Amino acid sequence: MNLHVIALFKFNENYLMDAVELFQSLVKETRKEEGCLQYDLIEDKDNKGTFFMVELWESVDHHNRHNGQDHLLDFRKDAAKMLESSVEVYKGFKIY
């Protein structure tokens, strides 16, 4: 069963260009992963510095493997100092 994930990020406005660079690398590498069906970065149109990642994984196991990948671990480490608040992550299965 496919796993849908939405991750919400709120970056300090002083770091927006740096954040976008980090995201570009993360997206590029993640899209190469086995089981990654969708991995898209969206910027909120009304809230500068607010981004959300829309993810679709072939399975929970594929997503779990993603969580241990070096490119994601590096992103988390580098982004931590730029975030205004904790990342919110929502995971679920399509109902309809």
UniProtKB/TrEMBL annotation:
Quote the InterPro entries the UniProt record gives. ABM_dom, AI-2_Isomerase_LsrG, Dimeric_a/b-barrel
Q: Enumerate the Pfam families for this protein.
A: ABM
> Which Gene3D superfamilies does the record cross-reference, listed alphabetically?
3.30.70.100
Is the keyword Transcription regulation assigned to this protein? no
Q: Does the keyword Oxidoreductase apply?
A: yes
Gene Ontology molecular-function annotations = monooxygenase activity
Q: What is the designated name of this protein?
A: Quinol monooxygenase YgiN
Keywords of the record, alphabetical order, are: Monooxygenase, Oxidoreductase
Q: Which residues form the ABM domain?
A: 3-93
In which domain of life is the source organism classified? Answer: Bacteria
Species assigned in the record: Chryseobacterium shigense
